[in-house]
Design a protein that fits this description.
The protein has eight helices and eight strands. It is of the alpha/beta class. The protein has a single domain, classed as TIM Barrel (Alpha-Beta Barrel), CATH 3.20.20. An eight-stranded parallel β-sheet has the order 1-8-7-6-5-4-3-2. Helix 5 links the parallel strand 6 and strand 7.
């Protein structure tokens, strides 16, 4: 089955004072899931939210909450995020010494398992674990802050993964918008994280539609 489009607005670009309303607004505009950037101020030089925020948000939405764990020692938080209502636990390869065991722990908790790699990390590190994963995230900026410029040299990793794993959910995150979405989807990305380009758009619904159409044309209908 061809990978389906999944458009995941990054809630890092939302108004945190109105997080529940922002989540409902994005779902109403056609979002398939919500990208939750979890940063600990250690693995990345920024601090955002933790499992208490996920728990609070879960009370207000049934949306798929894709938690991107930009944290050191990701093993520490699996149970807490599962209890909070996270749907996906996507950890960084660079943050753990035993990705395989962590994937098993995530799956046992009832969440889906994702693996993220930084721009300078070789795509080959994913191969031993790909068959166990629900999603691979190829970062197209250095993790830590929103609003960065899209790094074109990360795209060959997406192409390699799509060639090797035709049915895998492949996510791109970082600086993705109308001016580069086709580059990402032509390489095979079907899960699109977009922050500024959605939240900053005059019409977020239209921005999401444009992202989805690119996946449909370049991935799903190929």
């Amino acid at each position: 089955m061809a990978p389906q489009p999944k458009i995941s607005p990054s809630m890092l670009s939302s108004d945190f004072a109105c997080l529940a309303d922002e989540a409902k607004r994005m779902v109403g505009c056609g979002a398939d899931c919500l990208h939750m950037d979890i940063m600990d101020g250690h693995f990345v030089p920024n601090l955002t939210m933790g499992h208490p925020v996920i728990k609070s948000l879960r009370k207000h939405t049934d949306a798929f909450l894709d938690c991107h764990m930009m944290v050191s020692n990701p093993e520490q938080w699996v149970e807490e995020f599962a209890k909070a209502g996270a749907s996906m636990y996507c950890f960084h390869y660079e943050a753990t010494s035993d990705p395989g065991a962590l994937i098993d722990k995530i799956k046992a908790s009832g969440m889906k398992a994702g693996l993220a790699i930084k721009p300078k990390t070789a795509v080959e590190v994913v191969f031993p674990f790909a068959e166990k994963l629900d999603q691979v995230l190829v970062m197209t900026v250095e993790p830590g802050f929103g609003g960065q410029k899209f790094m074109h040299d990360c795209i060959p990793k997406v192409r390699t993964l799509r060639s090797k794993y035709p049915n895998l959910d492949i996510q791109v995150d970082g600086g993705v918008g109308p001016d580069n979405i086709d580059l990402a989807t032509e390489a095979g990305a079907n899960v699109i994280v977009a922050g500024t380009s959605v939240f900053g758009a005059p019409e977020p619904r239209e921005a999401i539609r444009v992202l989805r159409e690119s996946v449909l044309v370049n991935v799903t209908n190929k």
